[in-house]
Amino acid sequence: MLELSILRSLPIPDLTKTRFRWMMQHQPKHVMGTEISSARVWRLWKGSKSITAVAVYEDSSTRVRVEEFFRELSRDLGERCELAREMWPVSELRVPQLRAIASNEASKADLIIVSVHCGESLPDEMTAWLDGILKHKPRRHGVLLGLFDPVYNGPSGALHATLKSIADKGGMEFLSQTDESPQD
Q: Which pLDDT does position 146 carry in this prediction?
């Protein structure tokens, strides 16, 4: 658990100690620090020549989070495995034709990433995109990964539950990772 001295230095003036403790206690425990290498498909991926990944993100900070994840994943997979990646900003998913293209690409991917800020629900465009994936995704091994804000920016439990439900419907493994670094 973060120490209170770190809490005091955070640039979030309305975050009280009590609220912070409550968020830490009610945040799903398995969200913190999840590693992709814990996925059931990791051994298959590690021996593969290529992995395909499609990500959707909300804004520049959530895009940076995805790019950092891709760098770490490429390093972990090694030089013999090519990581083919596609990234979509949520704003492009507002156009039905682009959303259909993005859903089709993601339905063929080994790894689908949703990088979002804390909130009660996903943006409507992301929900429609994920629904499109479920319509086209063959029942095979895959991973849906949620990348979330640090816990002190707010709880991500509702988003976690939504993405887990979608992964279950699509026969995918669900993993999540919470960004541990403060955002500016």
A: 92
Mean pLDDT by 10 residues, the chain (184 residues): 41 42 37 54 78 94 93 88 94 95 92 90 92 79 86 71 90 82 44
Instruction: With beta carbons less than 8 A apart as the criterion, state whether 53 and 113 touch.
Output: yes
Polymer length of the chain: 184
Cα(148)–Cα(145) distance, integer angstroms: 10
- Sorted by where each starts, the structural domains of the chain and their CATH numbers stand as 41-178 (3.40.50.360)
What is the pLDDT, as a whole number, of residue 154? 63
Write a three-state SS string for the chain. CCCHHHHHHCCCCCCCHHHHHHHHHHCCHHHCCCCHHHCCCHHHHHCCCEEEEEEEECCHHHHHHHHHHHHHHHHHHCCCCEEEEEEEEHHHHHCHHHHHHHHHHHHCCCEEEEECCCCCCCCHHHHHHHHHHHHHCCCCCCEEEEEECCHHHCCCHHHHHHHHHHHHHCCCEEEEEECCCCCC
